Structure formats: C-alpha cells, structure tokens
Amino acid sequence: MDDWLKRFVPPEILSRKSYTPGFQPKSEGNLVKLNTNENPYPPSPLVANAVLEETKRLHYYPEPTSSNLRKLIAEKHQLEQSQVIIGNGSDDLLNLCVRAFSDSKRSVGMLNPSYSLYPTLTSLQRSSLALIEFSDDQFDLPLEKIISSGINLFFLTNPHAPSGLSFPQAEIAKILNDLEAILVVDEAYADFAEDTSIPLLFEADNLIVTRTFSKSYSLAGSRVGYAVSSPQIIEVLDNVREVYNLDRMSQAAAHAALSDKSYFEDCKAKILNERQKAHTFFTSLGWRTVESQANFIFTEPVTKGGKVGKEVAKSLFEYLEGQNIFVRYFPNHRLTESKIRISIGTKDQMITLIQTIKNWLNENS
Ligand SMILES: Cc1ncc(COP(=O)(O)O)c(C=O)c1O
C-alpha cells in the first residue's frame, strides 16, 4: 500500500490479517474438492424452481427480516419466532455477535485451534481476543480455563472444527452456568451430529446457537445461516444487522431447501455412510482418526515405515493436490500440523481419494 494511503487507514486495520478461505477452483473440471466442507450433492431440485420464481420479483427489495424463514426455523426447533434471526451465512451472525457484544474492554474468547474467522471478525471490531489452548491432544474441553477467562463473548465450535469431535452437552451447560458471558455455540456441522445445544435455550438466556444452510442443505453458494437465542439477544442482534441482509433469491432457496425434508435426509444419510466407511479405512491403516460428528474427517497420516508428523501430513496433502484432490492442511498449530482434514464427498469421490492414498502409501515408505 502506498504511504499516502496508509495515513488514512487506522493502524488496527492496517495490521489485521484477513481471512484465508479454502481454495476455490475456477472451474469444477476433473477434480475432487474435499477442502471446504461443502455438501457434495447439489441442493434440492425444489430450490431451482423457487429461485427462478423469485427472479420475477427482483425489482422489489427483499423482506428485511426474512420473516417466512424465521417462522419455518422456529417451527423446526419448536421455538418462538422471536428467538430466530437469519444471516447472510452464519458468518454474518458471528460478525453480528462480535459487533454487538465486544469492544476493546469486552473481550472475545475462542478455542485454539477452532474456526479461524473469529479472530478476523474480532480485529475488524477492534475487540480484544483471548485464545484458549487445549490442555491435551485429545481436544478435551479446557473447562476451567474457559470459565476463569473473564471474557465477555465466547465462541465454542461444536462439533469442533477442524477435529470433528463433539463436546459433551453437560460441559457446555457448565460453561453457560459458570461463565458470566454470552456463549455462542457455533453449530455449523450439528446436522451431522447426534447432539445439539438448542434445548439449553430453555434454561439459559445467555446462549446463542448458530447454524448454517451451507453444509447440510447444500447452499454454501447462497449464503444463508441463522441463530437461535433468547428474544432479548435476538433483539440486540437485529439492532446491529444490515437492513436487507438476505437477498430475495437466498430467502427463497433456503425456504425450499428446508421444506424438502426427504431430500435433506437422503443426502445426510449418504454422507454419514461415507463418513463411517472413511473412518473404518483410516483406522484400519492405524491412522489416529477422530470419531467425527461432522461432514469431514480429521486424520493423522502414517507412512508404511511408521513415520508421522508435519512432513508426512504435508507430503500427503501435496500428493493429493498433485492428483487434483483437494483437502485441507493446517500447518500452524501443534494439534493440527501432523493431520489433514477431509470433507466427506460422494461415494465415487471417496473411492478416488482412498485409491490415491493407497498409491501415496506405496510410493512413500
Ligand atoms: C465452524 C464454522 N462456522 C461457520 C462457518 C461458516 O458458515 P457459513 O457458510 O454459513 O457462513 C463455517 C464454514 O466453514 C465453519 O466451519
């Protein structure tokens, strides 16, 4: 950036690091994309019709509160409509949480590693951030560290990313009870899990649960998410929300996707089946693999000669990339540097992946 421009930009903005999204190829071509936890299946066929129909009304602004969607989501979770807010992806809602509940004195907390967007949002808001490290390499919740952290807003990713592990609800209830703060449980992957924190809303007013249509509803390209909480918190979030934060086509797409329950269940069942098969494959190789509750799997590659570690994980990541198979590798943390994260794909994609991993094993002892 030129010096003349730097004078106009606040130092916190100049020094902040922007978010690095997973690689998005320019064309789908002949590649296997298992790096950003998208759904490998397209959205319900009802979505296309609903979106096309909505294009006839694009000369009108969208309904600012996405009220039809709020109603459907409230019904889905047996909540009041006043307990629901819709966002432009759940990222939008995470941003609203930071905007509404933090500043330089009211700090934000997160587990490290977890979703790397939280620090990006925090730095935009110029809020202070507390990174809470796991105490072991099993991703057990460091409960006492969280409870004594003195933070104002805490982001808990559950199922956890990138491990895929689910934290016990009793421990989440303890945080809610003992931490005097707003707790956001980021449930981006909860549709693939056995558990959810939504029932805790009946006991606690300081809980926000965020969900997304990007993963389980195949709508990552449409950017729809939602949060459920107490009516008071929803009012605060609504107060800091962009007026028309969800366009007409996305509202229609999400409505249609949510209505097609059998399509949703069908895609989910296929993903859970492939997840189970992948888990069996990796454990049969002797690779330490988290029992995933998400639509991805986190595993520690081992060469035929028994080597593990940063170089091994990097080697597999690069080998797969060379074969046009894209997975995710996070080299910057001791708990992630020797592992790779693989989104669960279609049956055919997983067959290709597994065959390529076998080839890598044969070529790397
Ligand atoms: C933990 C977590 N939360 C939120 C999101 C963002 O979801 P959305 O597409 O709804 O913004 C992601 C996306 O990968 C995620 O991993």
Helix content: 25-40%
Largest sheet: 7 strands, mixed
Secondary structure class reads alpha/beta
First-to-last CA distance: 46 Å
Q: Number of folding domains?
A: 2
Strand elements, count: 11
- Which kinds of small molecule does this entry bind, naming each only once? pyridoxal-5'-phosphate
In which order are the strands of the major sheet placed? 2-8-7-6-5-3-4
CATH architecture annotation of the largest domain: 3-Layer(aba) Sandwich
Radius of gyration: 21 Å
- CATH homology-level superfamily of the largest domain: Type I PLP-dependent aspartate aminotransferase-like (Major domain)
The SSE order reads HHEHHEHEHEHEHEEEHHHEHEEH
Mean pLDDT: 96
Task: Give an overview in words.
This protein has 365 residues and is of the alpha/beta class. The protein has helices at residues 3-6, 11-15, 45-55, 67-76, 90-101, 117-124, 143-147, 169-178, 231-239, 248-259, 261-284, 310-322, 347-363; strands spanning 32-33, 84-87, 108-112, 129-133, 153-157, 182-186, 207-212, 225-228, 296-299, 325-326, 340-343. It starts with a helix and ends with a helix. It has 2 domains: 22-41 and 262-363, Aspartate Aminotransferase, domain 1, CATH 3.90.1150; 45-259, Aspartate Aminotransferase, domain 2 (3-Layer(aba) Sandwich). The strands form 3 sheets. A 7-stranded mixed beta sheet has the order 2-8-7-6-5-3-4, with helices on both faces. The chain has a two-stranded parallel sheet with strand order 1-10. It is globular. 38% of the residues lie in helices and 13% in strands. It contains 13 helices and 11 strands. β5 (153-157), α8 (169-178) and β6 form a beta-alpha-beta unit. α3 (45-55) packs antiparallel against α10, α4 (67-76) runs parallel beside α10 (248-259) and α5 (90-101) packs across α6. Residues 37, 89-91, 115, 157, 161, 186, 188, 212, 214, 220, 225 line the site of pyridoxal-5'-phosphate. Pyridoxal-5'-phosphate (PLP) is lined by residues 37, 89-91, 115, 157, 161, 186, 188, 212, 214, 220, 225.
